[in-house]
Amino acid sequence: MKNMNSILKESVISLNDYFDTNQVDDFFQLVDQVIEQLLLEEAHEQVIHFTLCKASLYFNVSHLTLASQVLAENATYIEKYGDVAQKIRYLNTLAAIQGRNDDLEQAFMYLDRAKQLAEQYDRTHLVKIYHNLSVYYFNQQQFDESLLYAQKSMAYFAATRKEGTQNNRALMNYAKILIAMERLEEADELLEIVKAQLQEDDGESRLAWVKTYVEWLGKQQQFDKAYAVLKQEIAQHPNKHSWNKELYELLCSLSKKTQSKRHYFQDLKQLKQTMDLVNADFVTTQLQSVKKYVDIEQLQKIAWCDPLTNVHNRKYLEEHYEVFSLRYHQHTVLVFDIDHFKEINDTFGHISGDQAIQQMADAVNYFFEQQKAMFVRYGGDEFYVYYQGPSEADVVAFAHYFHETLIAESFTYEHMTLPLSVSMGSVYAAETHTYTEWFEAADSVLYEVKRQKRGELHYKTV
């Protein structure tokens, strides 16, 4: 900040303060103006810092699409100018977004890249990365791997923090793994350690402890005690609707086992009422948090757009498929991806992989618009095309013409031009199916292409 003028310095200080104190409205009213001035000053570190802050705040208020958009628009800039810590922070944020979207494969890919960077250049980030990897493996029910990374996270925490401090989040995660592995006595010891530190804590740590403790009681077959604990916690926090929704969900699963039908239905009714309150809170919070710094009329369009390629995403497919499928009686679905995509990433870097995906989407998007086909990025380097025509001959010709168009394309990266090899699976039917049924059928054909000879189109009637 040495060479900045005094006004810009004050703005940077204020913006950091707004972010640190979670003053969301003030932050967003100022951030774009400050970033624009910082770009003129070529203050790359600060530009990336506030870009990541912006994505983080969008994530915190559950605007995952906007968070993704911010990161995608600045990916090349971060790759070029970001330091190691910022690149790790960028990858951690991407992983968190994909995890929230239940795309665990993508989340793991970003976490693994963050881990490689941290292990090679900056080990101070490994506490968080190892913890997140532990959570990933837990969700995959790979408990031995989850335990290993939990132990690594706690070891790094112990080595880098003041003596006597505890990482309650890591301890809770460790206890959950031990419960899943039926190591209940060890889990009990950890739960007691955490409980002693949470007696005055009414935050998310308390909620996590209650849920884990109830799970431990369930493993001990102490269902009545677990039910009573949940009832007590709900009664103590009547206005914490989101909190109580999670507790009521646990309560109802116990109530079905241990209570009379009358009590069970009462608990279900309470759960429904709490869910309604949560939904009302969510809508109000979303509108309040976004209306001051986002064009709400454009928000739905953004929600349907893949931020990397600017083509439609899976959410658009989910919401428009039913109406779209009624136009004709002849249907075809194509699923395709880039051959040897991992090798592109490994050889030229992940930014090059993103550019390959972007170039492929750019090359064919206009074609699909002209043909009035639905073109969607389904995930990773995999794309989904849904097309209808007046006859089987028409949809077959469409599939072959598109494949020929695509294989004529090439991939350009840093003055190098490489052929773009694409494998494609296509299915045809005279009756409609759900979009997931279509995908599974076409994806199985794509798998056969990959197994036999990449770079081809295989076609099947279903």
Radius of gyration: 26 Å
The average pLDDT score comes to 84
Uncertain runs with pLDDT below 50, 5 residues or more?
Answer: none
Question: What is the string of helix and strand elements?
Answer: HHHHHHHHHHHHHHHHHEHHEEHEEEHE
Task: Please identify the structural class as seen in this structure.
Answer: alpha+beta
**Cα distance spanning the termini:** 64 Å
The number of helical elements comes to: 21
Plain-language structure description:
With 462 residues, the protein is α+β, with helices and mostly antiparallel strands. It has a domain at 304-461: 2-Layer Sandwich (Alpha-Beta Plaits). The chain has helices spanning 6-20, 24-40, 44-60, 64-73, 75-81, 84-100, 104-121, 126-139, 143-160, 168-180, 184-197, 204-219, 223-236, 241-258, 261-290, 296-303, 314-324, 341-348, 350-371, 392-407, 435-452; strands at 330-338, 374-379, 382-389, 410-413, 416-419, 422-429, 457-461. It has a five-stranded mixed β-sheet, with helices on both faces. Strands 4-5 form a two-stranded antiparallel ribbon. Strand 4 (410-413) and strand 5 form a beta hairpin. It is globular. The chain starts with 5 loop residues before the first helix and ends with a strand.
